[in-house]
């Protein structure tokens, strides 16, 4: 079955402000439904513990939730799995598959994103052929990505005004979101702020309210 049309995916990306990465969890379907109902625009399965078969099974759960809410499904690292589940988005870090290689696997419709951690990487991702969006971070050191040094909000400030869609990431929560916005970000990626929330729908709603003001 073909995935969404690339123009529609890129339109949804342009409109997206809240991107959630989640590990697999026993209540994945209910959790995803709540987060998407609260306003999450893109949901990525980020779980390094899964074998391909289990990752595909979890992504199929997320795909159903994304289709029901008209939102985007993202795969982390694996172009083959993105292809297998007809994902809308493939996210690649600096040490992952080269973009040109991933593009051959997933085709032209799928949106490809990149992680960046310094100004040189950010400027490269802002112009590199085949890249549709990028992320800058971590804004703060985060236990979700142990050992990754944080360039902090200076990198967000350096990215302000770049036209290609970009998201701030790393250590962002409802308490410090105003600092991220003041540094120039209009889009954010979060993990714990929603995955650890008692009420994921309410957490997502609060992010969306703050991001739209
Ligand atoms: C949306 C988004 N942004 C950044 C990352 C981090 O990617 P990477 O640096 O490859 O690290 P891992 O997540 O693979 O550990 C991401 N996954 N998603
Ligand atoms: C997965 C990931 N990538 C980062 C980067 O800077 O590229 S920071 C990060 C983890 C973000 O998790 P939390 O919202 O729980 O701090
Ligand atoms: Mg990666």
Automatic annotation (TrEMBL):
GO molecular function: magnesium ion binding; thiamine-phosphate diphosphorylase activity
Highest taxon listed in the record's lineage: Bacteria
Signal sequence range: none
Binding sites annotated in the UniProt record for 2-[(2R,5Z)-2-carboxy-4-methylthiazol-5(2H)-ylidene]ethyl phosphate: 142-144, 171
Residues noted as binding 4-amino-2-methyl-5-(diphosphooxymethyl)pyrimidine in the record, renumbered to the chain: 44-48, 76, 115, 145
Enzyme class, first EC level, given as a word: transferase
Enzyme Commission number(s): 2.5.1.3
Domain annotation Thiamine phosphate synthase/TenI: ranges: 18-194
Cofactor(s) named in the record: Mg(2+)
Keyword line: Magnesium, Metal-binding, Thiamine biosynthesis, Transferase
Alphabetical list of InterPro entries matching this protein: Aldolase_TIM, ThiamineP_synth_sf, ThiamineP_synth_TenI, TMP_synthase
Cofactor note: Binds 1 Mg(2+) ion per subunit.
GO biological process, one term: thiamine biosynthetic process
Record's catalysed reaction(s): 4-methyl-5-(2-phosphooxyethyl)-thiazole + 4-amino-2-methyl-5-(diphosphooxymethyl)pyrimidine + H(+) = thiamine phosphate + diphosphate; 2-(2-carboxy-4-methylthiazol-5-yl)ethyl phosphate + 4-amino-2-methyl-5-(diphosphooxymethyl)pyrimidine + 2 H(+) = thiamine phosphate + CO2 + diphosphate; 2-[(2R,5Z)-2-carboxy-4-methylthiazol-5(2H)-ylidene]ethyl phosphate + 4-amino-2-methyl-5-(diphosphooxymethyl)pyrimidine + 2 H(+) = thiamine phosphate + CO2 + diphosphate
Amino-acid positions noted as binding Mg(2+) in the UniProt annotation, renumbered to this chain: 77, 96
Gene Ontology cellular-component terms listed: cytoplasm
Gene3D superfamilies: Aldolase class I
UniProt pathway: Cofactor biosynthesis; thiamine diphosphate biosynthesis; thiamine phosphate from 4-amino-2-methyl-5-diphosphomethylpyrimidine and 4-methyl-5-(2-phosphoethyl)-thiazole: step 1/1
Cited PANTHER family: THIAMINE-PHOSPHATE PYROPHOSPHORYLASE, THIAMINE-PHOSPHATE SYNTHASE
Function: Condenses 4-methyl-5-(beta-hydroxyethyl)thiazole monophosphate (THZ-P) and 2-methyl-4-amino-5-hydroxymethyl pyrimidine pyrophosphate (HMP-PP) to form thiamine monophosphate (TMP).
Family statement drawn from the similarity comment of this UniProt entry: Belongs to the thiamine-phosphate synthase family.
Protein name, as recorded: Thiamine-phosphate synthase
Organism in which the protein naturally occurs: Lentzea atacamensis
């Amino acid at each position: 079955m073909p995935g969404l049309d690339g123009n529609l995916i890129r339109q949804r990306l342009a409109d997206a402000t809240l991107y959630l990465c989640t590990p697999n969890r026993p209540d994945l379907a209910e959790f995803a439904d709540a987060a998407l109902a609260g306003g999450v625009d893109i949901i990525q399965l980020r779980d390094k513990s899964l074998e391909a078969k289990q990752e595909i099974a979890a992504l199929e759960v997320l795909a159903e939730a994304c289709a029901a809410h008209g939102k985007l499904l993202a795969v982390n690292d694996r172009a083959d799995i993105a292809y297998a589940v007809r994902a809308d988005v493939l996210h690649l870090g600096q040490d992952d598959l080269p973009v040109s290689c991933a593009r051959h696997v997933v085709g032209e419709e799928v949106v490809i994103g990149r992680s960046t951690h310094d100004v040189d990487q950010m400027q490269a991702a802002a112009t590199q052929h085949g890249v549709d969006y990028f992320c800058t971070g971590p804004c703060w050191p985060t236990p979700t990505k142990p050992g990754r040094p944080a360039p902090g909000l200076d990198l967000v400030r350096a990215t302000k005004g770049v036209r290609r869609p970009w998201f701030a990431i790393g250590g962002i929560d409802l308490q410090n979101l105003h600092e991220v916005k003041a540094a120039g970000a209009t889009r954010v990626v979060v993990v714990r702020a929603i995955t650890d929330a008692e009420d994921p729908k309410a957490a997502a709603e609060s992010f969306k309210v703050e991001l739209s003001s």
